[in-house]
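Work through what follows:
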Amino acid sequence: MSTQLPEKKEPKVTTQTVVDMKGRGEKISMLTAYDFTMAKLVDLAGIDIILVGDSASNVMAGHETTLPITLEHMIYHTSCVVRGVDRALVVADLPFMSYQVTTKDALVSAGRMMKEAGAHAVKMEGGKPIADTIKRIVDAGIPVMGHLGLMPQSIYKYGTYKVRATDDQEADELLSDAKLLEEAGCFGIVLEKIPSKLAKKVTASIDIPTIGIGAGSACDGQVLVLHDMLGLNKDFHPRFLRRYHDLHTEIVGAVGNYVKDVKTADFPNKNEQYK
């Protein structure tokens, strides 16, 4: 009599996993997700990191910017994602004004994201101004991912979504900020919409992984918004976006067929109803 052994589960991705991946030159894959069903699918496909981004403000709630989303909203979305994940590392954005006022506020916000939502780590935008806050959060046992370059929570300060750090002064500041975030204890840094040469220089200057979005191929990993790369959103056409599907057309077509079948009484047919 033979006994069938259970399938060996892939080990969970941790913050140390992604640091080790950089060390051995293995690229890191990262996508956003905001709900249970999509998180389950993305995790099943083998993604390394799922970011519960404050971009939920745009793609889930229809806001123009990421600013309106609250900590309570982010806790809700993150808890939905966590329940759908077996393997991936789940990183949750701390939303605008949940960490910028005081270090105490930031620590409480990060703690709620871990305790109430079950996040594995949090992400915060900014460099030198929040380095001490990040250190305090990390010292409390909460992993932090940084975010430099274009920072959507500061969009009204920038006034534009154009590429950041194209001049020497801002480039030097970004490089300095990356080193400060590493010193503060970040396990990784997202680099958004900066010149590829600068991203390469930053990546080579720190021991923690960089995750690029519009920052070139030299980063240790890449991240995209799930709704963008699946072609659900046809109104967004940045240079860095590669669409891997056209779900917009497929879904509109499928719903259109459903409407037609209902209107013509073709649905449900005899095999789709109970006797």
About this structure: The first helix runs from residue 15 to 23. The two ends are 45 Å apart (CA to CA).
